[in-house]
Request: fold
Amino acid sequence: MMKQLIARVGPCTLEPNNDDPFTLLVRCVISQQISTKAAESIFARLAELVKGPPVPLEKLAKLSEAKFKSCGISGPKQRTLRAVIEHVKANPKLLPGIPDLDDESIRAQLTAIKGIGPWTADMFLIFGLGRPDVLAVGDYGVKVAVKNQFGLRKMPHPDKLTKIGEPWTPYSSIACWYLWRSLEAKKEDA
Reply:
């Protein structure tokens, strides 16, 4: 299945986005449960407002609810961003040292923040740190793509997705990238 997909999509262009860890975390929170295009638009408005990127923690901390809202950031995401700010302030060594941690330690550190779940941690690992072996079992797009590519009748449960993805180790992040691209290819074919 994956061999045909790789041939159809072409070379992988997945690269870390080179944001500093705080900006990356802000970007990941904004991206929760919305399309990539919408997330990019909202992040661009926020970055313009705080004269970034990078997104300065102190400027973000001073934004009012109305300013967040003017960028398109919902109330729950505002609360998560405030939790991120407080966590980073309380743990000043966390983000500078995060690239040196293993994937599981990073997941544990990030999911300790209210509003940050496994999906956000996975996106941080894949797109921010360029970790090669992250299988985003909670990502809707990955689930849809696996359902389509493997002819499943229903969306795969994380355990089933983990089993299907075993052969992709140690390049699960790249497999996820190809799965996401398969959805884009379907739109172009339509």
Q: What stands out?
A: Residues 2-13+136-189 form a domain with the Endonuclease Iii, domain 2 fold (CATH 1.10.1670.40). The chain has two domains: 2-13+136-189, 21-128. Residues 27 and 139 are 16 Å apart (CA to CA). DSSP finds twelve helices and no strands in the chain.
